[in-house]
Design goal:
α3 packs antiparallel against α4, α8 runs antiparallel to α9 and α11 runs antiparallel to α12. This protein is an all-alpha fold. It is globular, with a radius of gyration of 17 Å. The protein has two domains: about 120 residues, no CATH class; about 90 residues. It is built from 14 helices and no strands. Helices cover about 70% and strands about 0% of the residues.
Length: about 220
């Protein structure tokens, strides 16, 4: 059972890393960030506080803060990611808000992906994002937003049993995964069809995941 689990998550981790290598955090203005710098951590801390507590920010200013926090978290040391996670709840609240523009939601989804990339503690803190991401994934107009939400979901569950189980409980998950997967246009700019990958991991009898996520296995995990 453990070897099957290891295979599933090893595959998912490789797929996520392959796309992330050319998709997340590549902002020219941030290429010189010192990954170990206390200055970077202090900057993230200041940006996060500004996002959470400055009620006079314009939408454009919030978008800039969200994007920069995500990029810095992705490119920085582990402590940078932990610092950025302090504003995950604020980002998720903005993502759920009907008043948040769709383009701003794109930036939020990207930032959540960056903050949670291969960071289990941050993934767990972002569990409240799963329902809204699944909902976004099921809306294929435009297609890129559906696929971005799907990729973010992949980042949230990668190498994390608890989050994968939480994902399986989200209503309309399979239907929205199928909707995202079945769009005829190619996944240009992506290394994989991530909806197809998640369907294989969650529902394929040959992947081993269907057994791993069965009710009996859940009971074993909580003992």
């Amino acid at each position: 059972m453990l070897s099957a689990a290891g295979h599933v998550f090893s595959l998912l981790k490789r797929k996520v890393e392959k796309t992330t290598a050319h998709y997340l955090g590549h902002d020219v203005d941030l290429q010189d960030v010192d990954a170990e710098s206390d200055l970077t951590i202090r900057e993230i801390n200041n940006l996060a506080k500004n996002l959470m507590f400055n009620g006079s920010l314009t939408t454009e200013e919030k978008e800039e803060l969200v994007s920069k926090i995500g990029h810095l978290a992705y490119m920085g040391a582990p402590e940078a990611g932990r610092t950025a996670a302090t504003c995950l709840n604020e980002m998720i609240t903005l993502l759920k808000s009907r008043s948040t523009s769709e383009t701003f939601k794109d930036k939020i989804v990207m930032a959540i992906s960056e903050i949670c990339y291969l960071n289990r503690d941050n993934q767990n803190r972002a569990v409240a994002a799963l329902p809204v991401l699944v909902e976004m994934m099921g809306n294929i107009s435009p297609v890129h937003r559906s696929r971005l939400a799907c990729y973010c979901i992949t980042c949230l569950v990668c190498n994390n049993y608890t989050m994968l189980i939480q994902l399986q409980d989200v209503p309309e998950l399979k239907e929205n995964l199928l909707t995202c997967r079945n769009v005829r246009s190619p996944w240009t700019g992506w290394s994989d069809n991530y909806a197809d990958l998640l369907i294989d991991i969650l529902y394929s009898e040959t992947s081993g995941a269907s057994h791993l996520l069965s009710s009996s296995y859940r009971s074993d995990m909580t003992r």
